[in-house]
Amino acid sequence: MTDPAPLQRWAVRIEYDGRDFVGWQRQTTGLSVQQVLEEAASRLASGRTVASITAGRTDAGVHATGQVAHLDFPAEVRLNASVVRDALNFHMKPHPVVVLDARSVDLSWNARFSAIRRAYRYRILNRRSPPALDDGRVWLVKRPLDAEAMGHAARYLLGRHDFTSFRASACQAKSPLRTLDRLDVSRSGEDIIIVAEARSFLHHQVRNMVGTLKLVGEGRWPPARVGEALAACDRRAAGPTSPPDGLYLTAVGYDPDPFVT
Amino acid sequence: MTDPAPLQRWAVRIEYDGRDFVGWQRQTTGLSVQQVLEEAASRLASGRTVASITAGRTDAGVHATGQVAHLDFPAEVRLNASVVRDALNFHMKPHPVVVLDARSVDLSWNARFSAIRRAYRYRILNRRSPPALDDGRVWLVKRPLDAEAMGHAARYLLGRHDFTSFRASACQAKSPLRTLDRLDVSRSGEDIIIVAEARSFLHHQVRNMVGTLKLVGEGRWPPARVGEALAACDRRAAGPTSPPDGLYLTAVGYDPDPFVT
Hints:
Chains A, B: Its EC number is 5.4.99.12. Chains A, B: It comes from Gluconacetobacter johannae. Chains A, B: Keywords: Isomerase, tRNA processing. Two copies of one chain form a homodimer. By secondary structure, the first copy, chain A, is of the alpha+beta class. Chain A contains five helices and ten strands, in the order βαββαβββαβββααβ. In chain A, 21% of the residues lie in helices and 30% in strands. The A-B interface holds A 15-17, 63, 65, 85-86, 89, 96-100, 127-133, 135, 137 and B 15-17, 63, 65, 85-86, 89, 96-100, 127-133, 135, 137.
């Protein structure tokens, strides 16, 4: 038996435009962010395979301004933080994926399992005209939305609950229990911004919560019905899944945070 | 001699992504925003020609979130504000141009000559990594910029001056005198936002001011040198023209404003 080749682990903070991809994870159906990142890393490692693990496996069409992943390079490749960032960015061109920051981490550190917080932002464009500048980046809702009512409804979801009603049928998590720490709704001109934070989320949880809050914003649901939908523990009791276009993974939290020195 | 056909004039507020266009004005070299708008308007007028006049003839690559133009339709076409907005948006698809609002105006009202104020926003992305989400929408400046020094320098340009030093050689304005009412510089995270307001601007004036302020932000120019460049009345005394990517025409002011009812 031989020991595995020694590795060095790098944490990277990443921004991407989800429109061009089948999602984070490799698929046979098209290009993924993971493939773009790992192929660029492999170029840095003279063609050897470099595997990655990510904090959040975003769906097709979902964007990120603060995704985090780690990459395992062969130990003998000479790297530093600027080289990892700039060389990965060079090799990922022209794909809309960039590394914002890179940090050397211990092999015990894991982008997914060390994460203690995920933050998402969802952007609704609330007006009659479609977006000329932000097509694929927002959810266009033409009927006027009451952000205050949506914010009131959001409070029913805060805390530790069984989120079965807001969970995709394909969700592979063992438990439907999650603790939602933040779900804020605010209006800024024609934009409705929803910020969600938790240690972790179920599959489609943010998009299902947003799709449900939109029913409240339109006046079709009273805010209290969101609490009833949660209590029902039945996906059919909540609203539809909002499109991926408006969703951004904005931050992943660690303690200690390798990106804060 | 016959009278010209009677017309009805509509003011439209427009958003567009400048990346796809040769600029506002029709050119033989490619597609312009004007052509997309006028061809859509012509469809509404059963194929008859509809001419437009705009408040700001933006250059290739420059964006707008609040451009204003007027369109002269034959008087007998039955129109109302929702029809003008929604039908133009339908016919302009899939081009990244949308009408946000439409208002019926007198034939004495002119989108260009009635305008008393133009507002532009310029967005610099100040970080090492290129933009994944905003390629073509920002000017990437990698060296750290001192926004405070830029704001101090900007004050030398406020007021009524001969702006020859900040004027494109191709500028067709009769006088180089302009009154700059606002030139604010602020930082928001990795963004440097510059807001400029005046009754009117010379050709490339905003981009030349931004290109000059960037030299101050990098520490290559002391702020006072911007005042000296202005006083020189010589284009070679000021800094280079910043790229169109970061520039947005955000608002055009009128008194009374047809869009404020």
